[in-house]
Design goal:
about 350 residues, alpha/beta, Rossmann fold, 2 domains, 7-stranded mixed beta sheet, binds 6-O-phosphono-beta-D-fructofuranose
Length: about 350
């Protein structure tokens, strides 16, 4: 191959820039030119007035020192138009016109589906799992997960310090749309006493019982870590009953959040629980050494595969080493939640 492309897609994750840098270095090593495709798959649709807003020549001189920077230099987006077959054909025409012979796609499972579609239309793609969520079963870690967990642990430790000073509990929400891995590892890493995840059914009453027991045991400053997606796993009767009993006539979505949980615990456990939503701080951090290392290994392997004419693959980590497998096989794998660790954290 003489020219390849690289894009970042979906939610940004720490390490995406390091992966782009690795792709640029590997491309230079193999004597290939590199095109940076902007704003995920949107760039392939070439809708901007200026071509550089969609696709731009990337060289080591252009991207200079981005490797340790958070966010993504190429920008990112979720591209709904790419779901339409005619738009994908349009994208392939643009890709061919630019002379791009293969693409490295850095993103999560949605981005992988897009890559598979491009492969089916004759554009070889290799995926790098860029998402903080760690929700892809085929890899031990996704790019950005380690940084996100470390970010949460730092913040939860700070919250625990002030909780300790005031002898009051904290409820901390971390990211993870359908996956409790960030919550689980952040809870273990920070010594939090209660962890709530989307993979395990839960109820507010059950959490309140646990917190009350901790308070009775002499720990009025326990931390509850909840994954943002955990509301989907809550027993619906729990909040329906609560709303009914209290004559609330608001829409469920308006109240089912971490502030509401904190309020409920306040009343049920007679304590001063305080909520914090960590939010995007987790995504915007400088990548950890581990994520930067993974980004470099993955970027290098992705370019090597394309150079050898091998597309339709994704890169992952197995036994601590980078490996690759077909996109379809990777997406079929079912995640296994670490229930043992979850039970251990929640043991009182
Ligand atoms: O997929 C990564 C993620 O950070 C999720 O944890 C979170 O639910 C989502 O992205 C938020 O995305 P957005 O940028 O659209 O708010």
């Amino acid at each position: 191959m003489h020219r390849i492309g690289v894009l970042t897609s979906g939610g940004d994750s720490p390490g995406m820039n390091a992966a782009v840098m690795a792709v640029a270095k590997a491309a230079r090593y193999h004597g290939m030119s590199l095109i940076g495709i902007k704003r995920g798959y949107n760039g392939t649709l070439c809708k901007s007035h200026h071509i550089e807003d969609d696709m731009l020549e990337l060289d080591l001189d252009t991207i200079l020192d981005i490797a340790d920077q958070p966010g993504t230099y190429l920008r990112t987006a979720r591209c709904l138009e790419f779901h339409r077959p005619e738009m994908r054909v349009h994208a392939v025409n643009n890709i061919r016109e630019m002379g791009i012979e293969g693409i490295v796609v850095i993103g999560g499972d949605g981005s992988y589906h897009g890559a598979m579609e491009l492969c089916a239309l004759g554009v070889p793609c290799v995926g790098i799992p860029g998402t903080i969520d760690n929700d892809l079963a085929y890899t031990e870690m996704t790019l950005g997960y380690d940084t996100a967990v470390n970010s949460c642990v730092d913040d939860i430790r700070a919250i625990r310090a002030t909780s300790r000073s005031h002898d009051r509990p904290a409820v901390v929400e971390v990211m993870g749309r359908h996956c409790g891995d960030i919550a689980l590892k952040a809870a273990a890493g920070s010594g939090a006493e209660i962890c709530i995840v989307p993979e395990v059914n839960w109820s507010i009453q059950e959490v309140a019982n646990r917190l009350s027991r901790l308070i009775d045991m002499g720990n009025p400053r326990a931390t509850v870590v909840i994954a943002e997606g955990a509301w989907d796993a809550m027993h619906p009767m729990d909040w329906h009953r609560y709303l009914r009993e209290n004559g609330c006539h608001v829409h469920d979505d308006d109240v089912m959040n971490t502030h509401f949980l904190s309020l409920m615990l306040k009343y049920k456990c007679k304590c001063e629980a305080r909520p914090t939503v960590l939010g995007y701080t987790q995504r915007g951090r400088t990548p950890s050494a581990y994520d930067s290392w993974f980004a470099f290994e993955a970027g290098n392997l992705a370019v090597n595969l394309l150079e050898n004419g091998i597309g339709n693959q994704v890169i992952g980590l197995k036994d601590g080493r980078v490996y690759y497998l077909p996109i379809g096989m990777a997406l079929q794998q079912k995640r296994e939640f670490n229930l043992q660790l979850y039970n251990l954290i929640n043991t009182i």
